[in-house]
Amino acid sequence: MNINEILSKVDHTLLSQDATWQDIKEIIDDGINFKTASVCIPSCFIKQAKEYAKEKIKLCTVIGFPNGNATTESKCFEAENAVKNGADEIDMVINIGFLKEKCYDQILNEINLVKNACKGKLLKVIIETCLLTKDEKIKMCEIIEQSQADYIKTSTGFSFDGAKKEDIILFLST
């Protein structure tokens, strides 16, 4: 796989709390120039970013971010509002406490409700692998496979550790 093929699969991301509109414009320009899969930015910039980028690149935003413990209703509102403002893709963070308590049906229901709120747009589910046991990661792979979500993601980048090669191998084998 060459660098262009790799970049076409990357969500070029800027979610820092101190991001400015100038920073967002730069990441959009980079995403367009390098032909990344999308740019992932805070939802407060989506409407402005859509006007700026037009249809030159897909816009992604995050909901329930970074902790995942917002209410399902809040996550649904965030997703619907982001789509209304121009988001092409939504990355949601699961409620890790629900997983630790084995509330699997609640997690599945939440994912499906958020997917419905996405109005046909892509939904990626972030499970924050560094906080999970191997069995919990496997269970999340099973839940996401049963759900209407489109993809699984490893991490927010806001916890103590990020994606690991071992997690990707586990995802592929599950």
Structural overview:
There is one protein chain. The chain has 174 residues and is of the alpha/beta class. 47% of the residues lie in helices and 14% in strands. The chain is built from eight helices and six strands. It has helices at residues 3-7, 21-34, 46-53, 72-84, 96-100, 104-117, 134-146, 165-173; strands at residues 11-13, 38-40, 59-63, 89-93, 122-126, 151-153. Strands 1-2-3-4-5-6 form a six-stranded parallel β-sheet. Helix 7 (134-146) links the parallel strand 5 (122-126) and strand 6. Helix 4 runs parallel beside helix 6 and helix 6 packs across helix 7 (134-146). The longest helix has 14 residues, at 21-34. The chain is globular. The mean pLDDT is 97.
Topology:
Elements: H1 3-7, E1 11-13, H2 21-34, E2 38-40, H3 46-53, E3 59-63, H4 72-84, E4 89-93, H5 96-100, H6 104-117, E5 122-126, H7 134-146, E6 151-153, H8 165-173
Parallel strand pairs: 1-2, 2-3, 3-4, 4-5, 5-6
Helix pairs in contact: 4-6, 6-7
- Low-pLDDT stretches: none
Count of DSSP-assigned helices: 8
**What is the global morphology?**
globular
Tell me, rounded to a whole number, the average pLDDT. Answer: 97
Overall SS class: alpha/beta
Instruction: Count the beta strands.
Output: 6
Rounded radius of gyration (Å)? 16 Å
**What are the secondary-structure elements, in order, as H or E?**
HEHEHEHEHHEHEH
Helix content: 40-55%
- What summary fits the major beta sheet? 6 strands, parallel
**In what range is the share of β-strand residues?**
5-15%
* Gap from first CA to last CA: 23 Å
Placed side by side, the strands forming the largest sheet appear as: 1-2-3-4-5-6
